[in-house]
Design goal:
Largest sheet: 6 strands, mixed
Strand content: 25-35%
Strand order of the largest sheet: 1-2-3-4-5-6
Order of helices and strands: EEEHEHEEEEEEEEHEEHHHH
CATH class: Alpha Beta
CATH architecture: 4-Layer Sandwich
Radius of gyration: 17 Å
Number of domains: 1
Distance between the termini: 37 Å
Length: about 200
């Protein structure tokens, strides 16, 4: 399996390309912008974009979808299919999907948005705006932040520390690095109050 990183000037967002070693059906994660450089990389690796994974609904991660659909006509997977103008396959928490031979596990971690998902492929976590190198995603309030921290603590920090983090913005990281240097996560790991801070109507 090959994984390629593509940086976009559309809010400095990241798009990731995942495909088999010898070419064929591939996955694009968060198409913030489709430009000639990305198309060239897809074609040079003999990929055809068969699947698109959306980590959350924000435009910086979805703006290139219209262009992409005209070129490759892929299946699109997202946690909020109702916000798009074309058919989108609903992603659910803990789903395990076989996308052209590539196994993808979906992990829902709300807080930045209600429809925020992390996708696990092999030893890589595509975290969108849930978790970045050295910081967590932005939230609109204290309860949302507590919900986000709780999700990261319970669903991501319990994974093997060697897992890589490929975020929606910024550089890549790893679970172990975040445990050592991400101060918000260090505080969260030592706190037992995250469940109490999170609003019951949001959690249940």
């Amino acid at each position: 399996m090959k994984v390629f990183f593509h940086f976009s000037l559309n809010e400095f967002s990241n798009t990731f390309l995942v495909g088999p070693e010898d070419g064929g059906d591939a996955i694009l994660i968060d198409p913030g912008k489709i430009d000639l450089e990305l198309i060239d990389r897809i074609e040079k690796n003999r990929f055809s974009i068969a699947h698109v994974l959306i980590t959350h609904r924000h435009e910086t991660h979805t703006k290139g979808l219209g262009t992409l659909m005209k070129i490759y006509n892929p299946k699109v997977y997202a946690g909020s299919p109702g916000v798009f103008d074309f058919p989108v396959i609903q992603v659910n928490d803990r789903s395990i999907m076989d996308l052209s031979g590539i196994t993808v596990e979906s992990i829902q971690i709300p807080g930045h948005t209600l429809d925020s998902f992390v996708y696990k492929i092999g030893n890589v976590l595509f975290t969108g705006d849930v978790l970045f190198a050295g910081r967590i995603g932005k939230t609109s309030g204290v309860l949302e932040k507590a919900l986000l921290l709780r999700g990261i603590k319970n669903r991501l920090l319990t994974l093997d520390e060697r897992f890589l983090i490929f975020p929606g913005h910024g550089t890549i990281s790893a679970i172990k690095i975040e445990k050592l240097f991400n101060q918000e996560l260090i505080d969260a790991m030592s706190s037992d109050d995250l469940a109490q801070l999170s609003h019951p109507s949001v959690i249940t």
